[in-house]
Amino acid sequence: MASSLHDLSVAELATQLRAKSVSAVELAEHFLARAEQHAELGAFLATDRQVSLAQARAADARLAAGDAPPLAGVPVAHKDIFVTRDFPTTAGSRMLQGYRSPFDATVVARLAEAGLVNLGKLNCDEFAMGSANENSAYRPVQNPWDRTRVPGGSSGGSAAAVAARLVPAATGTDTGGSIRQPASFCGLTGIKPTYGRASRYGMIAFASSLDQAGPMARTAEDCALLLSAMCGPDLDRDSTSLDVPAEDFTRSLNESVSGLRIGLPKEFFGPGLAGDVQTAVRAALAELERQGARLVEISLPRTELAIPVYYIIAPAEASSNLSRFDGVKFGHRAKDYTDLEDMYKKTRAEGFGDEVKRRIMTGAYVLSHGYYDAYYLQAQKVRRMIADDFQRAFQDCDVIAGPVAPTVAWSLGAHGADPLADYLADIYTLPASLAGLPGMSVPAGLGEGGMPVGLQLIGNYLQEGRLLNLAHRLQQATDWHAAKPAGI
Ligand code: GLN
Question: 2-258 architecture in CATH?
């Protein structure tokens, strides 16, 4: 049994812990040993055996006392964009190398309250900017399905760790697709809730009007368990936190999907979509249709505009957010400098990587006098129109479905010095982000090279339960989510 502990889901592990057939300490030891054994993947940026074991012992004590919270003793790991007191936090950047936060992010604290044991911090693109995890200042992450390919990004370490069964579930953040796309590339289930559902407190800011936290796991049921623990108002600490009570997302998992109208945006199935991805997505949709859902064609006419709009707004917000890294308040400071301005310049030149600098420059440009109206303001107007397009579409359907990304995971280095190639691959995830809608990725089989393909589900505001319900029903009838990379 011990050899297959890592194949168990969060729900199964929680049951075994309660039945005392395994202890939290045993689980922490088992998964940490696996993380070490698969260190070549580059998924973890920090582990600390003593810290994790102390948390596991505390969980075991509560399990023994019979007052343990529902997920007590289940291991989890966090994208290194969430600040943690017990582990260093880098945001994948040299700028924050060795940084220790004096507090835990709300999401981290809530999962700890739910009893989960933190196994460490997971690699990601620098400040969550990227689609392949190749922008990490530390190292790229390998996709466990094919070590020569990217795991997706920016939550690439989270995706690789869960796919390789180094941890049963992980947190990610999604600003323009960073939970959904790596989940799709690594054969996982991942959900980004409605903007404002999960607190952004302690989540290092990239683009504040878009950033949202969410879970990545192997099943919809596990995502529902984690999301229920993560969400809920945090009004004093995040001014954009929604004043909507926490929900138990497991409650609606088994509802019938019969009669549900699934809208397929014709723009998501156009010429840019690879044949293998289209085939897998259609197969998943056919299964939902078999269960009584109805497929209807809809249109999201401004889909293509989501790319320029996002790549104006996100850098604009990033350029402002990242101004705090000036060598004075946090992290890196240049060693040799002549005066204050020189210190700022050298600190930022040394601390930030190329993609982050590109975004800061783009952002400063679109916000500058003379260009603000032409770019930033225009982008904000189109953003509103994109959100309105979704509301029109939701008059004809209950949920929207399509691919997560145009292709399966590409080869490490394939996009080389061409950032635009990465940006264009975000086309299907950006619209929901700009509208603040919940979106998820659900495994839908394998495509080219035996690589996983994800089905994307997008819901109206606060409809996470419905997305998880559809995903769960799909997973009850198929076993795409159970597929496993070779050698894992
Ligand atoms: N790929 C997008 C970007 O580079 C989205 C990243 C994210 O969601 N954090 O900005």
Answer: Alpha-Beta Complex (3.90)
